[in-house]
Amino acid sequence: APIIMFLLILFNSILNTGVLRYLTALVQFIIVGYLLYFGHSHPEVVASYNASSPDFGIIINILYIFLATALIIFFFVNQNRAALRKVEEANTSLRDANSEVAEAAKIQRELISNLSHDLNTPITLISGYASALREGLVNEENYNRYLELIEKKSLELSYLVDDLIELANLETAQVEIYKVKYSVHSLIEEVYHKYKGEIEEKGLDFIIKPLPPNLVYRKILIDHKQVHKLFSNLIYNSLKHTTQGYIEISIRLADTKIEVEIADTGTGIKDEQIPFIFDRFYKGSISRNSEKGGSGLGLHISKKIVQLHGEKIWAENKKRQGANFLFTLPLLEEDI
Question: Are 43 and 31 in contact (CB under 8 A)?
């Protein structure tokens, strides 16, 4: 019985894992070891017990059998619990995977539907204009106008394809973010000089509010290329929907990050549309995109860029006229 007991405990300690199980096996070793030690080192006591109580040996063997049985039950109960836990985890993972697959399929259907519409519209127009020119249905006065329309629609297609490639790279994590230390002052200076001419050419004022004193010498941790793409998307969005007034950029400190605001005096955004304007291909009938065309991808790409930096982006309506786009970027930790 003692030998069998030792083998069972050894079996338990080898197959079981976890601190609690090891401690249980250790306690069992100690109990059985002590009983064996006591029996071999004090044979006279055992003999006296046997003499006074003939059932002593039977009791000891029953004790060994009880411990062995408890050990086996403990082992299989724990194994069963572990197996049930793994099955439950597998079921949870499977449910999550099924949800992700269903969501991916839904997104794919929406993507194909939107793409079909956004590609067919300019292609149909280009085809119609080209046929009219080829068949001589356009008089000389409108000839150049038709060519300009073909060129415009071709550029729209090119921009759409570029946005689709950018979006695909962002959503499949094929774009690697290379964060570098960059001066807040340098970034805003670059943005100002890059877009000043184009904005003023449209008859708008381009206003950069002075940096607060506590930000003049601070640095942010950003992917320089992607952040410029972010500014480009938001400024061109404002430029497309603003016919008079200004586009204004301001930056302020917000705890361990900076908050950038791009405001315009354009058409504004309907309040009920604000929660959806960063969705892929969103061009609701009363949104700004529907009024001026556009792929409906620029703001969604902007959101992805901000999220890759671990930050957030949102939109607000101005009290009088126009829209505000706001986003945060992380300050350099050692500079906080």
Answer: no
Tell me the three state secondary structure of residue 295.
coil
CB 37 within 8 A of CB 2: no
* Secondary element (H or E) of residue 313: strand 313-317
DSSP state string for 222-242? E-HHHHHHHHHHHHHHHHHT-
Q: What is the pLDDT along the chain (336 residues), one digit of tens a residue?
A: 455 555 555 555 555 555 666 666 666 667 667 766 766 777 776 666 556 665 655 666 666 666 666 666 766 777 777 788 888 888 888 888 888 777 767 766 766 666 676 677 778 888 888 888 888 888 878 888 888 888 888 877 777 777 777 777 776 666 677 889 999 999 999 999 999 999 999 999 999 999 999 888 899 999 998 999 999 999 999 998 899 999 999 999 988 899 999 999 998 888 888 888 888 766 554 444 444 455 568 888 899 899 989 999 999 887 778 899 999 999 987 655
| 204 neighbors 249 (Cβ within 8 angstroms) | no
Token output for 217:
């010498």
Q: What is the dihedral of CA 185, 189, 190, 195, to 10 degrees?
A: 140
Listed in sequence order, the residues at least 6 apart from 329 whose beta carbon sits closer than 8 Å to its beta carbon are 220, 222, 227, 257, 258, 260, 306, 309, 311
**C-beta of residue 244 within 8 angstroms of C-beta of residue 204:** yes
> If DSSP codes are grouped into helix, strand and coil, which group holds residue 282?
coil
Q: Classify residue 35 as exposed, middle or buried by CB count within 10 Å of its CB (0-12, 13-18, 19+).
A: middle
